[in-house]
Amino acid sequence: MDEPVTPPSKKRSLGSWALIAVPYFWLALFFLVPFLIVFKISLSQIAVAIPPYTPAFDLSAGWQAFRESLSELSLENYVWLTEDDLYWKSYLSSVIIAAVSTFITLLVGYPIAYGMARSPAAWRPTLLMLVILPFWTSFLIRVYAWIGILKNEGLLNQLLMSLGLISEPLTILNTNIAVYIGIVYSYLPFLVLPLYASLERLDGSLLEAAEDLGCPPWQAFWKITLPLSLPGVIAGCFLVFIPAVGEFVIPDLLGGSNTLMIGKTLWVEFFNNRDWPVSSAVAVILLLILVVPIILFQNQQQKMQERDG
Amino acid sequence: MKMTSFLTSVAALSLMTGAALAQDRSVNIYNWSDYIDESILEDFTKETGIEVVYDVFDSNEVLETKLLAGGTGYDIVVPTGTFLSRQIQAGVFSELDKSKLSNLSNMWKDIEARVEKYDPGNAYSINYMWGTTGLGYNVEKVKEILGEDAPVDSWDLLFKPENAEKLAECGIHVLDAPTELFPAALNYLGLDPDSKDTGDIEKAGELLKTVRPHVQKFHSSEYINALANGDICLAVGWSGDVLQARDRAAEADNGVTVEYAIPKEGALMWFDQMAIPADAKNTEEAHEFLNYIMRPDVMAKASNYVYYANGNKASQELLNEDVIGDPAIYPPAEAVENLYTVTSYAPKVNRIVTRTWTSVKSGQ
């Protein structure tokens, strides 16, 4: 058999290139291209026109005109962002609100995931189903429902007053507390699901061994369950934190006028000022801020895969 | 309320798009929320066979954002005069074909003359409704808190912090409309309500900030229900909306009496204009609708329902007495003199106005 044989490794690498190209193509089409458009607008100037900024590239005008409009771009909008403290206050407040709600979601979600993972195997699909079930109703409608629950004459206040726990209705709606409730409620499944996955895979014999060796249950939890579920905790926390930073719907519907979040600031910039260039600049900065936790998340995922593989 | 109107419009939209597929002729209208007697749309369809797809908004800013993005798919939109003038400048609208609008002769010359300021020659738009931005209040609660001689006919009710502070316990709502609140504050301070001077705007911002801690919410449509239910006792609102709240309260018979006042210091007079976007697909149908809405009986029906004055002179004899006879809707000539109008802000000034408004609202 002198016939040359293509080394199988080379074939595999070609196939895997094609495989990798799909997500990269996806990323380029739905992330990079929109990002470049937004970035370009962020360097433009506001104008009374359709669309409301200049220069808007007209590719039919030829190369020379294209280069001229390139030279009209400026970083002025970014300078504007640094001159006004509203923007960094919004960024900061968004990160704080997202971090606090992520922490609360973890406190609420961990026992749920733990309980699910510990329940009899026959129940688990049902429990999992119950966690996913709220997604069958529109997110918007579920947030609206919270208005009915939290408002001054709402269900919660009626219940507490009829139980005699409070005499005056609590003002929850239109405050930051309502925003926390909204975020924790909406994002809870995103934390529970990865956490449940990692808790379910936990090797039960480790806990049995600990028990045999006289380790009390809480210590066994602290020394075995918690460290082993950490990848699930981290994955769940990122899945809550990252979208919560840019959240608009929840603070807009449940928050008060002094709830400062970057999603709302962006909305005001876009809809009330109709200032596309500045709102694009705000969006670019928001993206840069979010890239850091996303990269951390990626690294963590990779580590996990390497370990599992 | 907002939610129900949102849901119904979504439902209506989906039903109607379904129907529109079967029928060829349709017209897409984008109007303010709670701003039409829906039977007008049904009658129009019955008479002409043109399906109406009706969608609603509650802020001029949202409308303008969509219009400036282009390709809205709407055939008729209803911006306020100040916004209309800037949109005309941006090339958003196409001129009306007046040969198709035989009912233009019904329109009220006085209103057309005032609209000239925004739409010279009324070339791009017809007036739908006009009204004022003033104070809606809960009669019993305001009197209970501030006494019998409460200054209900004055901006003092809101802009005097001692009044606002007391009224805060029963709730104050303010329109989320900087282009209407800055003129009101400027006017109260004795400055030109149409001032574009950033120093003046800052002064108005300072005044609004002193009131800010006592305002429960800045919102442009929730106050209708809130006033009617007695959840709040004062709202800076649009005349007809407050009067709708008055009627809802009367219907509910819940012991709440709502009144509207045009403050004696003056109030903003505004004009909501129907116009056809340049990229509208159904311009023929849009003209037919505009001509239909200018029929005296149709316009009278609209005003009788929404409690706003209209720009249609011929419709006036068909109006109900509680509309044409109500000085809060059709103010007498001497009261009209006390009303002011404003023009739009240039983009850079607009940025400062919005920024000041954001800092008023957020308290930052």
Provide structural commentary:
The complex is a heterodimer of chains A (309) and B (364). Chain A is an all-alpha fold and 309 residues long. Chain A has 2 domains: 43-74, no CATH class; 75-308, MetI-like fold (Orthogonal Bundle). Chain A has 13 helices and 2 strands, in the order H-E-E-H-H-H-H-H-H-H-H-H-H-H-H. In chain A, strands 1-2 form a two-stranded antiparallel ribbon. In chain A, strand 1 and strand 2 form a beta hairpin. The radius of gyration of chain A is 26 Å and the shape is globular. The two termini of chain A are 36 Å apart. In chain B, helix 2 (38-48) links the parallel strand 1 (26-32) and strand 2 (51-57). Chain B has 2 domains: 2-130 and 270-330, D-Maltodextrin-Binding Protein, domain 2; 132-268 and 340-362, D-Maltodextrin-Binding Protein, domain 2 (3-Layer(aba) Sandwich). Chain B has helices spanning 2-22, 38-48, 60-69, 81-89, 109-115, 139-146, 156-159, 161-167, 178-188, 198-211, 223-229, 239-252, 283-293, 296-306, 321-324, 333-337, 347-362; strands at 26-32, 51-57, 76-77, 125-138, 172-174, 217-218, 234-238, 258-261, 267-275, 309-310, 339-340. In chain B, the strands form 2 sheets. In chain B, strands 4, 5, 6, 7, 8, 9, 10 and 11 form an 8-stranded mixed β-sheet that branches. A 3-stranded parallel β-sheet of chain B has the order 2-1-3. Chain B starts with a helix and ends with a helix. Chain B is built from 17 helices and 11 strands. Chain B has 364 residues and is an alpha/beta fold. Residues 1-7 and 18-22 of chain B have low confidence and may be disordered. Chain A binds chain B through residues 46-52, 84-86, 89, 144, 152-153, 174, 256-260, 265, 268, 270-275, 278, and chain B through 3, 59, 61-62, 64-65, 67-70, 86, 89-92, 178, 215-218, 231, 347-348, 350-351, 354-355, 357-359, 361-364.
